[in-house]
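Ticket #4471: complex job returned nothing on first submit. Input attached below:
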Amino acid sequence: MARYQGWFAFVLALAIAAGMFLLRTPLELGLDLRGGSQLTVQVQPAGEITRVGSEEMEAVKAVLERRVNGLGVAESTLQTVGDTQLVLQLPGEQDPTRAARVLGSTAMLEFRAQKPGAEGDLRSLRQLRSQVRAILRLRDEQALNGDSDNNDGIDLDQLAEAQKLFGLDGEATSETDQLQQLLAKVNEEIVQQFEPAALTGKDLVTAGRQPLQNNPNSWEVTLSFNSDGAEAFAELTKSIAGTDRLLGIVLDGQAISEASVGPQFEAAGISGGSASISGNFTAEEARELEVQLRGGSLPLPVEIIEVRTIGPTLGAENIRRSLVAALSGLAFVAVFMVIAYRLPGAVAVVALSLYALFNLAMYALIPVTLTLPGIAGFILSIGMAVDANVLIFERIKDELRRGNTLIRSIDTGFSEAFSSIVDGHLTTLISCAALFFLGTGLVKGFAATLGIGVLLSLFTALTCTRTLLRFLMGYSGLRSPNNFLPNSQLPTPSA
Amino acid sequence: MVDASSTATAAVRQLRWSLSSMRRRVWLISAAVVVVSLIGLLLSWLDPAIRAPLRPGLDFTGGTQIQLERQCDPACADLKAIAVSDVIRDLTLPKEGNAPLPQLNAPRVQLLDAGQSLVLRLPTLSAAQGQTVIQAVEPVAGPFKDGGQSVDTIGPSLGRQLLQSSLVSLLVAFAGIAVYISFRYDRRYALLALVALAHDVVIVCGIFAWLGLFFQLEVDSLFAVALLTIAGYSVNDTVVVFDRIRERTQQGSDLPLSLQVDQAVSATLTRTLYTSGTTLMPLLALVFFGGATLYWFAIALAIGVVVGSWSSIALAPSLLTLWEPQGD
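Support reply: We reran it on our side without changes. The output follows.
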């Protein structure tokens, strides 16, 4: 008996420890329960790199991490998933638009010198670009004020001609799309008028932003280079200072602005290692470019392949509903167990409550991020935990029906049921392991909670139920077979 | 301790389910259900609108799904799904880089929970384009509850990966279980456990194929999870029965195998029914109180539990009697 009292104290201490731990450590909730956005990014091979290896992934992750930090969303996490994917979680974020934009572009910044003799082509391209931009701005204003489209001072014929020239006629559905397409094409064309990059964003130390002095609605992005970059920038500006050639600033293959370099820099170029880009940025655009440039350019292009957003009230509703389901399921099971198995049934209910407590404590300890499929895994594992108890109690009943004494029946029941409990749990564990190591996302969360549940169920069924039962058997008032089985099913002692 | 006569009476009393005498009927029932399931999978495959054994959902095909909770205090404003799809069809989306604009001419609009929530199924949209759609729909279907929206966008490549990883983990789980059972029991038991497992998985898939054909029900990644769980549960259930059969045969009883199987099944019948019952209770609670997200998941699991119990108390043990020398 003393042995079981020791075990009983141990189980009790474990339960108190688990309870205390849970009170101090809140459970981590997944985005489907607390609301927020999740973006999955696929890293793609490009150029000489035909396979994305772990080194490339590290490099991409480091850049994206810096960009994510620049976004300033609290508790955001970025994790590598599988071989070539990254998952960004933004708790509480309802509109992932900005995050998607900041994450998705390569942010390859280049400074290039204009090709000699390209002045004519460049001038007409830039003129076309400013016209397209003007119309886009006009349409924006008209849409804002609710005015109908009017075409004051716009040469539509010239635009149509340009579209035909670039082979863009009839592709896009709306006027805005056509203009955007044309703008992108013109910007690419402009890049063609420049020499290869003399300086890239690699040599950037930091970036900032400020509104233009003459126009506070338009922002510029300021850059400072390291010594290599400063040297290259001085060299580059020196080579075109005082000529008609322009300095081109290119981002991800699109020309964003061009500048002329005055003759005063002919001797030494622009030194000091700082520059600014004023490409008609709004405050928001300037901030995004700043974040991207500070984070550095991505060594490989990425594609956003999954975006999931869920509102916080929807998440709270999910919690409420699964809680109701879990509790009512448990209540049904508890009532059933007490009716079917009497005293041991009640013991099993206590053991199952301990089981639920240990489970939650494990989630907090590891920690497991609780998601909706995770809760489903937990609820299902309760069913499996009950199974272990049912197996044991059925065996005890069998032994009692054969006329064995109570204590002996309990011991035989546990030892006889042991092998099938272990087999059943282990086979479930094999499926869990396959799901956990080969599955992704939702599947992983489900496998984790089910797997933990199965392991703990082995412990509670074989230890807690047994300890509690043997402890109660220490009280002679409870030591009656009738607490286990109706009298009618017991063999008569004299038989 | 126990005299022979009481063992014999116990054996007779416990024969509540004389399985081997009706094993043909058991096989016929299982075979019929499996055939109907296979027909469902085949018809679904031949259906030009599906072209797969099961109707794949957003998780597998890729696309964007937007769910919006409408403010329904005191009552929802009347809304016709067609009004929403008209708005979406006329919508101009903002351009995203150089990617071609998604075509919005066939949006799928559903109203759930008596019009309380609006679900839109669209081709893959960027985050910004998704917001444009929400803003455009708001005047017609709004006002929406603050924080009550969810937007899921899944690229087509992700769906393929998901399908692949689900299949691979299912096969690995099958193989792992087979190895474990051959190691703990023998190869006959492993083979039968896998037959029972395949039987359960095929039937659950078949039921969902028919649901897909008649009610446009789609399977998502949670369905894949459900299948894998059913696989684990089914084997768990079968193993307990096998454990009893092995125990009896090892005791060196000279009873015929079919009688030993019958006794083992009868002895575990209560346990199997109770366990299925207690597993079904939380699952049914999920079905009734768990909300839309887990609804079909819980139903798939519940069907799996019922079919799994059948295969472990009827199909797998009755197949085991096939190894008995014929002639009695």
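Chain A is about 55% helix and 15% strand. Closing as resolved unless it happens again.
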